[in-house]
Records
---
Amino acid sequence: MYEPKTKRFQPLKESQDPRAKCSGLCDVSVNARQKVLYTACRRGARWWQDVYRIGKNNQLIWLWSSEKK
């Protein structure tokens, strides 16, 4: 995660929320207007998408998961 104040990259801390369907960040996309981050993965026979907001200290805050169609 780029920090404009320090002009350096800082590690983005993964969410430890057990409700998240994906582990790790794969197929990432960003919605800057809504300030959310999407990640997708395959779990079993289904594709899932997790939605996160970036909180303080670059911690990902899980918002919801949905089946990706």
---
Amino acid sequence: MNFLVFGTTGIMSPLVSALMGKTAPETMEQFHTAFLPLVIGIGIAIVLGFCLKETGWKVRKAS
């Protein structure tokens, strides 16, 4: 899990920096455009979370 967290951070940081440009964002539109990939990633993570199979103790007890 730590590898995934730090790996994703290492990949996304340069992407967000490139989308922001060399200088600080001058408008909120630039800021929103730069962080859009992060928002999309969170949305995908939520959708995929609903696809996970439950493996808790209640499921093990029933089988």
---
Amino acid sequence: MSAASFDVVVIGAGAAGLFCAAQAGQRGLKVLLVDHSERIGEKIRISGGGRCNFTNRDLDPRAPQKHFVGENPNFCRSALSRYTPQQFIALVDRHGIAHHEKHKGQLFCDGPSQQIIDLLLAECAAGGVTHWQPCSVRSLAFSDASEGQTGAGRYQIDSSRGPVEAARVVIATGGLSIPQLGASDFGYRIARQFGLNVVAPRPALVPLTFAGEGWAPYAGLAGLALPVQIETGAKKERMAFHEDLLFTHRGLSGPAVLQISSYWKEGTPLTIDFAPGIDVAEALGDAKVRSRKRIANELATLVPSRLADAWVGEDAALQRPINEAADRALNALAERIARWQITPAGTEGYKKAEVTAGGVDTRELSSQTMESKRQPGLYFIGEVVDVTGWLGGYNFQWAWASAQACAQAL
């Protein structure tokens, strides 16, 4: 069978792949977009609780390392400064998609996430993109230009819909998170095939778990949510977030924990302040002077009552009216509320991770174009690259910005 010929083949029809294919097609290139999944943009569909948190207005492209994790967060500065949240918001507005800001610059669709998928498909159609889905890629090979021929080499793709050749290939296959939606290690395998280093992938924006017996006293708090200050690391590696935390049967989740999970290292503790902005020791000391209520009741004016009951627990020194409590016992309780330290046993893994940290080493790529420095005509964009954003639309903005940078270079 003779191979179908294209200027560019984009492998992976997620956020980055769809946007890159659309932008390249609209610049006059003959583009083929392929994806092995049956359904289009499933991670887009489920994102933001089905409303798609498609960008974050607070992103500062002058200091992107503030909102991104990786061995070299500065790598994303170029792409993010050249395609901003405001530019994607303008595209959303042109498509008539109503949206709102929910929290800390996070923008969501008023309606379902399908609106963003439809936007991307419409942009692909406007660029005349050929879209094969489902279509699996069995192999990717590169041949240099033959002696006497002009021009660069060509890529040969063996796909389930037949052979394809192209001068350039874009890998936009994402990471390992949410395998039930078709996540795979394809992008990492291609990178290694062509000699590129891959930073070890790991789950990110993921709930944290704790050892069975050690967690038993807190399992009864499952379902409790409250705002906290959470931190991990020391000195220059210290990172802290002020967000909502959620207790689960197996551990901790909620935005606070998803955020800190990208910075947490195995074997290191978390420090959690359950009453941020409140001097708990002072509040309990004042209550001791004026109140005869039980300690748990007074503590419940500062934190949720379920948490207060659990923290007072079976400690005999705390099972009494607050005016009868020893200062030492109250100070210990205050310290536990304000600086509770606990070490996770692990994470809920890729099944519950929103994104994958690690990926294609940014030292292997041009920050201007996303092209491999080792392999001409081979590009990597989106989640497959070692660039991981905070929770709240930052990873989508990296998808749009890296795709745009790549499309301009193509």
